[in-house]
Design goal:
The complex is a heterodimer. Chain A is mainly alpha-helical. In chain A, 68% of the residues lie in helices and 4% in strands. Chain A has two domains: 69 residues, no CATH class; 77 residues. Chain A has a two-stranded antiparallel sheet with strand order 1-2. In chain A, helix 1 packs antiparallel against helix 2. Helix content of chain B is 32%, strand content 15%. Chain B has eleven helices and ten strands. Classes of the chains: A mainly alpha, B alpha+beta.
């Protein structure tokens, strides 16, 4: 494999990560996250062929944690790749900043949830209710903003104009 | 010789970092995630002493009567129709199982002790787990755990989705339809009442009193105290009577420790089980599997960083080697 074809393979692999893995991890997180509420069984979604596991809170929680690890790895990769290599080529758009802010909020509240679920008493019941509402509210906002961006073709980043 | 990033090197870089971190462990994480056993109150139940007089059951009902549901009827029609009404308001006297109006009942088990068949009577209620799934997995935070280990459900907030019942290894919380916050939100489409269970008389304990069931027991079946002390007492008692312990390790540890002269497998076979009638099965730690994945969440960003750093390093090296000073494309 020569240099050029390797670069193409690299670019293609990264594009696939951005295009498929990231949305897939968001989809997994949203699906399993909403599964923490007792809605899938009541509304027959767990009766769709192959989706019976949606009614099992322990399974959905496990997958939510797995999805969170995948999402954190991808977000970390994108952020560091931006600072190491891409900063000169691309800039984050306004909708990109908005989505990053919402995603950061989701990740921070999610991390606090993970801590809360250990056998410890770091948080008061009132704070836990606040966390629940924040996490859900941020997710709803993130999904709505992403839907808007999908419909109106808004991207996270745009190419910088290079002046030589 | 350095190569530009490929799928293989990306995965290799990430996995190597992940493996390294796993091997190194996360300093202090284990200690930080351990419960404070000195602050949690536990109860020891010496099954031999219980005579099944139900004084505890009556005391529980008397003390908690003002917390019992007072549902509005007719109940709102729920959609889809599979959301069933759970109505115990006309069966408030039922005391042979857990209900929204009966948070403690006496379970009977005909077992053999020293060759003699006896009828064991066992008070059953919420186990008050050390890390209660009903509390930790409640989607709204309606279930709470107090610093002294008591888990209770806030009837003002609970929407009655019954998730707490499903994640509880003993399916303890019980639902009453037609009461609670859901009536003020979307009663036809979301929620279904309020979940009820033993709150171990948390307000009495806060005032320095004993829970009603302990105070009323004429036989002194239950003892309450800091968990580590209760565990020591349970082991001493089990050793003394050559008996068996249940509740110390079940579901990762509970604050209700039973000591019995017969194995709990035998008791489990002898008792009537089913809805509202908890068993004595071996219960694994409901919270543990996902909690163990927390380490992966610590490692994941580092794996992402490692992959990005490797890519940047390889790219820079390749650029240097080719003598190119062009901007990064």
């Amino acid at each position: 494999m020569n240099q050029s074809s390797r670069s193409n393979a690299t670019a293609s692999f990264e594009n696939r990560i951005a295009r498929y893995f990231f949305p897939l991890s968001i989809l997994l997180m949203a699906l399993t996250g909403f599964g923490q509420m007792p809605i899938y069984k009541r509304y027959y979604m767990s009766e769709l062929p192959g989706f019976g596991w949606l009614a099992d809170f322990i399974t959905t929680r496990y997958l939510h944690y797995l999805g969170a690890a995948l999402l954190l790895a991808l977000v970390s990769y994108f952020v560091f790749d931006y600072f190491f290599l891409q900063r000169k080529n691309i800039k984050v758009t306004l909708s990109g900043y908005l989505r990053m802010a919402l995603l950061s909020g989701i990740i921070i509240t999610g991390i606090l949830f993970v801590i809360k679920n250990f056998p410890v008493h770091y948080f008061s019941p009132q704070f836990i209710i606040f966390l629940n509402l924040c996490h859900l509210g941020l997710v709803m906002a993130f999904l709505l903003v992403n839907l808007y961006c999908l419909v109106f073709k808004k991207k996270w980043t745009m190419t910088r104009l290079m002046h030589k | 010789m350095a190569e530009p990033i490929s799928r293989r090197s990306f995965l290799k870089g990430g996995l190597a970092a992940a493996a390294g971190m796993t091997a190194a462990g996360i300093p202090g994480a284990k200690a930080a995630a351990r419960p404070d056993e000195s602050s949690q109150l536990a109860t020891l139940l010496d099954i031999r002493k219980c005579v099944g007089c139900e004084a505890c059951v009556e005391a529980c009902s008397e003390v908690n009567a003002d917390k019992y549901p007072d549902p509005q009827k007719p109940f709102p029609k729920m959609y889809p129709s599979r959301a069933k009404v759970s109505d115990w308001s006309d069966k408030q006297d039922v005391n042979d199982r857990l209900t929204p109006y009966n948070w403690l009942y006496i379970q009977h088990a005909a077992v053999e002790v020293n060759g003699e068949e006896i009828d064991l009577t066992i008070p059953r209620r919420c186990m008050h787990c050390v890390n209660p799934p009903c509390v930790k997995l409640c989607p709204w935070g309606a279930a709470k755990q107090l610093e002294n280990g008591i888990s209770r459900i806030d009837a003002d907030i609970c929407l009655g989705g019954s998730k707490c019942n499903k994640v509880c290894p003993w399916n303890v919380p019980q639902r009453q339809t037609g009461v609670g916050l859901y009536l003020d939100i979307l009663p036809n489409f979301a929620g279904n009442g309020v979940m009820y269970k033993c709150d171990r008389c948390y307000s009495r304990i806060a005032e320095g009193n004993l829970p009603a069931c302990i105070e009323a027991c004429p036989e002194g079946v239950q003892t309450i105290g800091p968990r580590e002390e209760i565990i020591k007492k349970a082991h001493a008692l089990a050793k003394e009577i050559n008996g068996y312990i249940y509740g110390e390790k079940e579901n990762g540890g509970t604050n209700t420790i039973y000591v019995s002269p017969v194995p709990f497998e035998d008791i489990n076979q002898a008792i009537e089980k089913g809805k509202g009638r908890p068993d004595f099965k071996k219960a694994g730690d409901t919270m543990a599997d996902a909690n163990n994945l927390a380490a992966a969440m610590v490692i994941a960003p580092i794996a992402g960083l490692a992959a990005a750093a490797r890519k940047a390093y390889n790219y820079t090296k390749t650029m240097k080697r080719s003598g190119s000073d062009e901007s990064i494309q």
